[in-house]
Specification:
With about 1150 residues, the protein is α+β, with helices and mostly antiparallel strands. Helix content is about 70%, strand content about 10%.
Length: about 1150
């Protein structure tokens, strides 16, 4: 596959549709910093499946969408499409049916990305595998971004191995192997779970078989308990029905009493209502009388207030008449004064006009004298200014020379001090240089410290390896401990359970069962329990209700048939049971029927499983073992458990001792590791201190030498400045001696200053006379204007006074008329007051009568309320009694209903059908409840002795058996899948190792050749380290530039590291060339000479491979070697644009022209 074209739309700064043509040869991308060159590379990586937004230089994947600029809004989508040439049909089979493959990726803000291959949606993994099979990809070593060279230099050997994987073309193989290993681990985990589940199911099936045998006995006991429970339920239902009938009778009686009390309460309520019906009318009548009284009282109050108001008004009018008379008098006086003021103003105006007519000639004479004095003063001041300027210039020149001489003297002193300081500092620097440490000695200390660090690191690695071994041994030793502890816990739990079961089954009281004294061999418990049955519950104590005794001599007892083994030989029992056990034979099930005919009276045969054959022909089959048999089996198992517990404790002790030893070894190795790490840290710290001391010594010596050169140069400059200052000082002294004398200039200046003072006094007198006369004239003119204004004001005031006097006389007449009206008002108020007092007395009498009638009615109402309250209390008490009777009836009905529900839930029959289940005839006497309860308790105790019983044991056994068969088939399928996965992983590993080793040889040879070519000499090689497995090993680079010793890559200089990394990357290309190689500013750390070598190497690779190179650079040498150039510009802020130039075509055109 070949990369043809990249189309970008809305990705980062490429907002407009942009096509980047990728052709064979060297394609350069140039442009200023920040214009978007690297965005092209990131678009290529993004469409190839890069899913890390950090590698996209973004805070989230949505940040790759154009976020807007000053003139453009943000976009909501971004799309990048990559066009691949597949004419050679080298693509994977799923995409190998077309000549061109189009891979696109589109992202919508907050909706994620969508991949498409030839227009069909695809997974990110499909896209990544497509490019991985082509030896490229978003994170392929062929995509050399900014800083990639530095990352390769600083990468760990394990990370560098990826270059070999790319060269071998096993990147896709590696991901497939990882996926297969994940599936294998999952399958192995499933197999372990299936094994555990199978073992659990087999154990459960065996347990269910035993539980099924106990279920039959449990069902028989449950049937007897059911019949007794039915009898109890019937008795309780009958008792509840009878109690319900009694409660119903009591309720009827209480209801009658409530009816009587309710009638009495109704009559009392009627009387109460009649009494309360008259109250509102009486209260309303009393309220109307009170309201009428209140209105009359308010009217009297208002009448009094109106009389007081009229008196106040009359007093106010009297005062107003006095004020009006005073105002009229004052206005008439003002009118008389106005005439006098107007006559005075006319006289003053005539006098001022006469004075102004006489002052014109005098003003002209004063003005001419003032102008002559001003001209004389101006001439005197001009002469004075000229003399003053001459004096100032001479004084300034002399002062400047004197100041210059002082400044030069001070500067010479400062320079002398600086010269002395410089000489002293030079002497001090020489002494400090002689006292500094020798850098060569410090360098030897650094070398020794580096050797000590390497030895400490090697020792720490050895101890870490030993610690890892000790920890592995501790893990191996812990497994037996866990297994032994689990086994011991299981045995102890089983022993405790059996002990509790035996303790729970012991008979209370002083008569232990004979079964407690019997010991029987393992496997014969069922036989002994079936042969003796309930007799095992009897005691050997004669005081017990049922007991065993020694009865007669057993010598005359008949012998058992031939082929029978007496049960006595398999059991150890008290002597009271000897005759009984001697007459019981143990036979196989197939021989029992044949030997039964030979039995003597009293003899019986029993099989190991519990089938009993008696001498009289009775045969009892083997069912679930009885309680006695179970107790015997549990006793035997408890004895076995004691032995097993002792053995388990010994095993656990041994395993714990081994684990303790392993833990001790770990602690010892950890102590050694801590000590080794301490030594390593000490050595590292000593190395750092030595390096710091070396750097400090070199830095101090360099600083002192540089300072000495600076001080020497400064001293030379100071010496030159001292000579210049001395020469300037001599010249200034000569100029000061040649300066003019100031005494003659000072005398001329004093004479001219006296003349100026005389002229200024003459001018001042003339100005005073002129300005005084002007001010007097102006003041007279202003007074004439003021007189005109005052005359107008006084005339207007006279007219206003006449009008005001007329208005005041009208007001005075109105006030006198109102006072006359107010004099007649008191007689009317007295008449109204007498009328209101008469109405007030009548209203008070009416309100008093209405209040008396209301009090009598309220007394009758209270009596009726008290009677009604008493009747209501008696009715409430009767209702409460009826409520209690209802509660008793409800409670009785609930008990009866609960009994019926209990019957329905327990027996699933109607109450009248319970007698049939209980075995009682209708009308028969019911037994005592306590007897029935004791019988039920006995049956339940017997049932509880059986222990936990699973009634669905048989069904569960069948279900588990089917499930076990299905799991076994599934386990076989998982085993087959694990075998296939392991084979596939081994095949992938084998193929990967072979291809990786082959690629390593080729890459190593190409790397050695390219290194020698780039460095113009020297040698280098690649080594696989850290593991014998090539798939897990790391890649180390050893280089020896010309004239230097071999050393690892990290010890080379920056430029050497960059050239070495380039040699490795290009060696990978030559081994398994990728379809595309992107180099983003790889030539940045190289000088011009090495850039030429770098460009020559790229030309060689472009000519010898099908790889298409995309090179981003700022170096003009690299630009000149490109086949074509694409320029990225940002004419509009935040928006990148792409322009292209084909340099080869341009050269041909230039040559043709």
């Amino acid at each position: 596959m070949k990369f043809n074209k990249l189309r970008v739309l809305g990705f980062k700064s490429f907002v407009e549709p942009t096509e980047f043509i990728i052709e064979r040869g060297l394609t350069g991308v140039v442009g200023p910093n920040g214009c978007g060159k690297s965005n092209l590379v990131e678009a290529l990586r993004w469409v190839m499946g890069e899913n890390s937004y950090k590698n996209m230089r973004a805070s989230g994947m949505d940040d790759v969408i154009f976020s807007g600029s000053g003139n453009r809004p943000a976009r909501n989508t971004a799309e990048v499409a990559l066009f691949l040439d597949n004419s050679d049909r080298t693509a994977p089979a799923a995409f190998n049916d077309s000549d061109e493959i189009q891979v696109s990726r589109r992202i919508e803000r907050e909706n994620g990305s969508v991949y498409r291959i030839n227009g069909k949606e695809a997974r990110a993994k499909d896209v990544q595998l497509l490019f991985a099979d082509a030896s490229t990809g978003a994170r392929s070593p062929s995509m050399v971004g900014q800083g990639r060279i530095g990352e390769l230099i600083n990468a760990k050997p394990q990370a560098r191995r990826q270059l070999l994987e790319e060269a071998a073309g096993i990147s896709g193989l590696h991901s497939r192997r990882h996926e297969a290993e994940l599936r294998l681990r999952g399958a192995e985990g499933n197999l372990e779970r299936l094994e555990d589940i199978t073992a659990q199911l087999e154990s459960q099936i065996e347990s269910l078989k035993r539980q099924a045998r106990q279920a039959n006995r449990f069902k028989m006991l449950s049937a007897d308990i059911r019949a007794r429970d039915a009898m109890l339920l019937h008795i309780r239902w009958a008792q509840a029905s009878e109690a319900e009938l009694e409660a119903e009778t009591a309720l009827n009686q209480a209801t009658m009493v409530v009816a009587e009390k309710a009638q009495g309460q109704m009559e009392a309520a009627k009387a109460q209502a009649i009494a309360s019906l008259k109250l509102p009318e009486l209260r309303e009548e009393e309220a109307r009388a009170g309201a009428a009284l209140q209105r009359i009282q308010i009217a009297r109050t208002q009448l009094d207030e109106e009389a007081g108001r009229l008196l106040k008004r009359r007093d106010e009018l009297s005062r107003r008449l006095l004020q009006l008379a005073e105002d009229i008098r004052r206005e008439e006086q003002l009118a008389a004064d106005n005439a006098g003021f107007l006559a005075k103003l006319d006289e003053e105006e005539q006098e001022i006009n006469d004075i102004l007519a006489d002052s014109g000639a005098e003003a002209e004479e004063v003005r001419e004298a003032f102008e002559a004095a001003a001209a004389a003063l101006a001439e005197s001041e001009r002469l004075f200014a000229a003399v003053t300027a001459e004096r100032a210039e001479a004084a300034a020149s002399r002062t400047q020379l004197e100041r210059q001489i002082r400044d030069l003297a001070e500067r010479r002193q400062r320079l002398d001090r600086q010269m002395q300081d410089a000489e002293a500092e030079l002497d001090a620097i020489s002494e400090r240089l002689s006292a500094l440490d020798d850098p060569a000695e410090r360098r030897e200390v650094v070398d020794a410290a580096e050797y000590a660090v390497e030895e400490a690191a090697a020792a720490a690695e050895d101890v870490e390896a030993a610690l890892a071994g000790a920890r592995s041994a501790e893990v191996e030793a812990r497994r037996p401990v866990d297994a032994a502890r689990s086994h011991l816990n299981g045995l102890e739990t089983e022993a405790r359970t059996i002990s509790r079961m035996l303790a729970a089954g012991e008979v209370s009281g002083g008569f232990p069962a004979v079964a407690e004294a019997i010991r029987v061999d393992r496997g014969y418990e069922a036989a002994l329990g079936a042969a003796l049955g309930d007799d095992l519950e009897s005691s050997t104590d004669p005081a017990a209700p049922a007991f065993w005794t020694v009865n007669g001599d057993a010598s005359a007892d008949p012998a058992l048939p031939g082929g029978c083994e007496p049960l006595l030989s398999r059991a150890s029992a008290p002597p009271e049971l000897t005759r009984r056990l001697a007459q019981i034979g143990v036979v196989a099930a197939e021989d029992a029927a044949r030997l039964m005919a030979e039995l003597k009276p009293g003899q019986r045969l029993v099989t190991p499983k519990g089938a009993v054959y008696r001498w009289d022909g009775h045969v009892a089959g083997s069912e679930a073992p009885g309680a006695a048999a179970l107790r015997l089996s549990q006793k035997n198992r408890l004895s076995e458990l004691e032995t097993e517990l002792e053995e388990a404790r010994i095993i656990l002790s041994d395993a714990e001792a081994a684990l303790s030893d392993a833990a001790g070894r770990i602690a010892a190795e950890e102590a050694r590791l801590a000590d080794a790490r301490d030594r390593s840290r000490i050595a590292t710290r000593q190395l750092a201190e030595a390096r710091e001391a070396l750097a400090a010594a070199e830095r101090a010596a360099g600083d002192l030498l540089r300072r000495r050169d600076v001080v020497t140069e400064a001293a030379s400059q100071v010496r030159s400045q001292i000579e210049d200052v001395h020469l300037q000082e001599e010249n200034a002294r000569i100029e000061l001696e040649d300066a003019p004398d100031l005494s003659g200039i000072d005398q001329r200046l004093r004479d001219q200053q006296l003349a100026v003072a005389t002229d200024r006094s003459v001018l001042a007198e003339a100005r005073a006379r002129y300005e005084g006369l002007s001010r007097e004239t102006e003041a007279r003119r202003r007074r004439l204007a003021a007189i005109a204004q005052e005359r107008s004001a006084w005339q207007a005031r006279a007219e206003s006074a006449e009008n005001h006097v007329a208005t005041l006389r009208d007001r005075e007449e109105e006030a006198r008329e109102e006072i006359a009206d107010l004099e007649a008002a008191p007689e009317e108020f007295d008449e109204k007051r007498r009328s209101l007092l008469s109405e007030l007395q009548k209203a008070e009498e009416t309100r008093r009568t209405a209040a008396d009638r209301l009090v009598e009615a309220e007394t009758r109402q209270r009596d009726a309320d008290r009677v009604a309250t008493t009747a209501l209390a008696e009715l409430a008490e009767a209702r409460e009694k009826r409520g209690r009777a209802e509660e008793r009836l409800v409670s009785s009905a609930e008990r009866r209903h609960e009994a019926e529900l209990r019957i329905q839930e327990t027996l699933s029959v109607a109450p009248h059908e319970v007698l049939r289940l209980a075995g009682l005839a209708p009308g028969s006497a019911l037994p005592d409840v306590r007897d029935i309860e004791r019988e039920v308790d006995r049956l339940k105790m017997e049932r509880e002795r059986l222990g936990a019983v699973n009634l669905r044991a048989e069904e569960e056994q069948k279900e588990l058996s089917d499930k076990l068969d299905a799991l076994i088939r599934e386990r076989d399928d998982v085993i087959d899948a694990i075998r296939k996965l392991r084979g596939a992983i081994q095949s992938l590993n084998r193929e990967g190792r072979e291809r990786l080793l082959a690629a390593f040889e080729v890459v190593n040879a190409e790397f050695q050749r390219l290194f020698t070519h780039l460095f113009n000499g020297g040698t280098a090689e690649l080594q696989l380290i850290e593991s014998d497995d090539p798939l897990e090993a790391g890649l180390e680079i050893l280089a020896r530039p010309p004239g230097k010793k071999p050393q690892t890559m990290t010890l080379l200089s920056g430029g050497e590291q960059a050239l070495t990394a380039m040699a490795l990357i290009f060696a990978v290309f030559l081994t398994n060339p990728a379809p595309i190689c992107v180099l983003d500013e790889v030539d940045a750390p190289l000088d011009d000479h090495n850039v030429e070598r770098y460009c020559n190497l790229m030309d060689e690779m472009a000519a010898s491979t099908e790889t298409r190179f995309v090179i981003i650079t700022h170096n003009p040498i690299t630009m000149a070697r490109m086949s074509r150039l694409f320029g990225v510009t940002m004419a509009e802020q935040g928006v990148s644009q792409l322009v292209s130039v084909d340099l080869q075509t341009a050269e041909l055109l230039r040559e043709a022209s």
